[in-house]
């Protein structure tokens, strides 16, 4: 069994899938990548306990077969080869020191030869084709990527409340909503595709979201087909296919968290606010450091004081015509939000110093995004 291709094609494919591989003592095959050769195509599949990702490239092969090889070792070897050079993979049985037969992969490139252990493809725990999975909608890769980037940071990382450890996707006749929250902040993005999606609700695990973001960047203007079932969701692009388990929990009622009575409005210039925050954050060294945001008809002032009693004060433009108000925020929460907002000017809707703040587009139409952040007690 032999595969012939080039370094660039192999590396491109391996880079697509290798981020998922994660070997364990219980099942070391999770550190391997499944190679499946058929005709002029080689598919590579990696899997962990949450998801499966597949990519493929063009090759020359003399047989149809499947085998698994160590993903990281193969990737490291291919990455260090000369760009674009021809690579051959040959699979042959050899006897080990105990006289037992084992199938090894020999990689030949130029004057270099490398042998790697293999494991049977029969033991590779592929996610089965779910019989209940159905098309949900098609969405442009660039649009999906931007939507996920604008909300994913607000999801919890390792909360005991597992329903917070991911991004909630909710499709309805109104469009597709992406929502994430860690209990202290909430981010929501709304898409209104030309063809509305069927009703569906699912929570995509945080790791799957990160892997999806990593792979979507190479898809450009391509369309991504989203399919969903009772327990899995699948994203199919031109260069990859990602199948992920769904978090089988109920997502919190995010609509009840979005404030409705915040009648004090500040119009803020995003770049100026972000630049000021980044400068004062130099003194915010400890985890969970805070910044005081003061608003008055004269504008906006930012203040940060650290444990060494060092301080930073910045003033920035903001249009605000209500009574002066002072709020304290986790500075990283604000930096995350401002990095996600794309509009040059946005609204901050406020009520009082202890109430959550709503950030949304400056226009009067239905908001395409909403961010909710709780202030910190001063």
Automatic annotation (TrEMBL):
Its main location: cytoplasm. It comes from the Bacteria. Residues 1-127 form the DNA polymerase III beta sliding clamp N-terminal domain. Residues 139-253 form the DNA polymerase III beta sliding clamp central domain. Keywords: Cytoplasm, DNA replication, DNA-binding, DNA-directed DNA polymerase, Nucleotidyltransferase, Transferase. GO terms for molecular function: DNA-directed DNA polymerase activity. InterPro entries: DNA_clamp_sf, DNA_polIII_beta, DNA_polIII_beta_C, DNA_polIII_beta_cen, DNA_polIII_beta_N. SUPFAM superfamilies: DNA clamp. It is found in: Cytoplasm. Residues 255-377 form the DNA polymerase III beta sliding clamp C-terminal domain. Forms a ring-shaped head-to-tail homodimer around DNA. Belongs to the beta sliding clamp family. Confers DNA tethering and processivity to DNA polymerases and other proteins. Acts as a clamp, forming a ring around DNA (a reaction catalyzed by the clamp-loading complex) which diffuses in an ATP-independent manner freely and bidirectionally along dsDNA. Initially characterized for its ability to contact the catalytic subunit of DNA polymerase III (Pol III), a complex, multichain enzyme responsible for most of the replicative synthesis in bacteria; Pol III exhibits 3'-5' exonuclease proofreading activity. This is Beta sliding clamp.
